[in-house]
Records
---
Amino acid sequence: WYQRRVHGEALRTNRLHRTSSVARQVLSLTVTPTPFNRSTPVLVICEINEDSTLNPLCNKPGALKGSSLVFSLEDTWIEGSVRFAFMRPDVSKPVFHFWIHTAFVKASLTLRKSEIDGTHKDPKNKKYPENFQIVVRFAKSMS
């Protein structure tokens, strides 16, 4: 009964589903080490979740820098739940993707292989090395 009471109270006061939304400017995304060869163009698509519909915010190509693939996104502002999907032109589904909510991010966010949808299904490191990661850098928050 306690769980029903607490859950019911949270629903009545809208505390269970409401998360304060914070607008954030994305500076860059860095994929290290890149799982793509130099001839494969890769795009990052940033989509915001509005009313259960994904609306694209940006569609940017990456640039190879050493063993990393870097996406410069300085003109991209995000707010709320956002999906970053990494696409190749020859594949209709994302190669890998991840979700974030702007209320829970700081100046940067590092996602390890096990935290990224699509890469976590490679436990034997055949497609993605064990040290695979994505770093998302944000501008300083105004709040």
---
Amino acid sequence: MDTALHAVDTAIDRIKREVQLQKQKSDGMCKYKTAHNWQEEKEKDVEDHDQPSYFWRAHTVTVLIVLICCLVYTALIETPVENSVQNGRRGFLVAVFFWVTLGMTIMPDGPFLRPHPALWRFAFACSIFYELLLIYILHQTPDDARKLMKYVDEDLGEPIPEKDYGGNCRLYDRENKADPFHNVKDKMDIFIVGHLFGYWCKTLIFRDWWLTTVISVMFEFLEYSLEHQLPNFSECWWDHWILDVLICNGGGTLLGIYTLRWLRLKEYHWRGLYEIPTYRGKIKRIIAQFSPHGWIEFQWNPLSSFERWIAILCIIGGFLVTELNTFYLKFVLWVPPEHFLNPLRLFFILLWGAVGLRETFQLLDDPECDKLGRQSWVLLTIIATEFLICVKFGLDTITKPLPKHIALWWVLGLVLLFVYTLVKFYLLKPNNVPRPEKENIQVGTPLGTPVHGAARSSRPKEE
């Protein structure tokens, strides 16, 4: 009996020591300082001092004159056509051109400067136009929405067969003497390059290989779970885990890691193009214009606080929903996988996601940032509207219930996630952790010199 009691006491002591150790680790994860010096970021000079700095000027009057001249030409000089479809398409394109050009000219700058702020203003204007277009499509019937696609391409709006990548999953088919590796060759298409390039870009915009890997693995689980809804999700086991996760997604992530390392170690010292004497130096400077103006390393620290943890979960969930929207939008709007609209949408999603994640990281890390960024706001509405279109137009497909064994696995995963969150941020919650203090800095004083009692000025312009 005494031996049993001693064993129980020993076990309890070990549990107490482990709990205390975990509390200390949790205390250590809490950052008293931000991961980046945002005050320095806001006060640094962001322009290229080329002489003359023609490309850094607004040119609002010039753009106004050009736009009016374009309207005069398309309305009065260009020969009219007695075709309502063609006239509607032309008027629509002219309206889009006017809006995007206007956005590039008068919209505020975002956080990115390279290759030029006008590119990111262009992307922001396109995001607003795309959201308005999605809202219009959302309020149509499925048949009318598919007919609208014919305005883009007359070949659209027709039912398309869904390709099934499953079936015979043998790596080496002994029965096919002529080509025993035909199963592997059948899976090799342009989407292999797309996967590799996509995860290279995701690693760059997340600036964190761990989050990118989590999204990669989680999406394969989603494909397993939803292959009863879309045949396109049905793949062989080696297609899921070897070709997709290890080779394509893992290879893109690895390239992204080396690119991030180069960007982190690079010296960001810019000279004006006209200050460089040699042609070789000028060419290198032009190429360097497509690299970042400076570098901020994202330290997400998901375990540093409950708010950070929930924010990271929401970011991962948002990216997974965005990837699912890609497949379901093709299905409900009858857009073939090889059509140019698919890579065009993904290209803009990457641009919007890069800016949105940069704004989100600043919201989480900068004590002076208290509102969601413009691009983040629009991107979230785009994801939600795309999802609503998929639900409305493909309700019969989306409401197909999960197989019982798959549903049980998802319930188990969600329960474990909830339990981990409860244990980590409630049972092992850090004690007496001070909040980061904000210093009052008066305009005109040296950076970092506190002026006690002075009222802090309004939040500086976000870079």
